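User: Some background: our group keeps a shared notebook of sequences we're curious about, and every so often someone picks one and asks for a predicted structure to add to the entry. Today it's my turn. The entry only has the sequence so far, pasted here. Could you supply the structure so I can complete it?
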Amino acid sequence: MNRVKLTSIIYLSFMALLLVGCCRSADDTWDDTKTCGRHMGRGFRSLGGKHGDSRQVCCREDFLQCKDDEYCMQDFQAMEFEPLSDQNYSKEIAMVGTRKKATTSYVPRADEFQDPRDNPALSSIFQNVHFPYNSSLVKSKEGRDTVRAIAEYMKKHPGTYVYVEGHCDERGAEAYNLALGTRRCNAVRSQLIKEGVDPEHIMTVSYGKERPLDLGQTEEVWARNRRAEFKVYQQ
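Assistant: Of course. Here's the predicted structure to add to the notebook entry:
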């Protein structure tokens, strides 16, 4: 039964090759015919119990044994191949080693970030960026200058990481303000990246209206609370 099935499969494959041959060149058809013949020969040898012995590849010559004269060794010169270091046929497999870059970067935890206002050298650089009402755009010149100053500092000190916090005033629903705070801190992050800061060194979080600087209810107070605030970690 297995012999009948294999013969049928080979016959159908050969017929399919002939049917699609009309849209191919004579050289392509000849190559496909030779390939089909080689596979048919292997199939008949398998039916007769001649499977060939498996063996371990230990050198380039063993790996590239071609019986067809049309295949040249020069076609395989660019192939990446590493022979086994041992020649005693151990149980190791000859494979190309995977090249991976060693990663030594460290991502600090949230509780490791410090308020820059506690450090005189940082407090003048990492100042709050304020936003207009119901907006996440850094429109003011002071805000843009602050972002550029922070970017320049971080590029000169590559071991610096920053947490950008998005804040809102007390007006509006909680969910809306959380989303608005997210847009604000992400807007500052995007500006820092445009200025050349490593994206992996910038984290963001939104607190919405939960952490106001001032509990008053005047326009001036609300303007102060609409901000992006920074926390800093330095290696």
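Suggested note for the entry: The first strand starts at residue 129 and ends at 130. Helices lie at 2-20, 26-47, 60-63, 120-123, 141-156, 174-194, 219-225.
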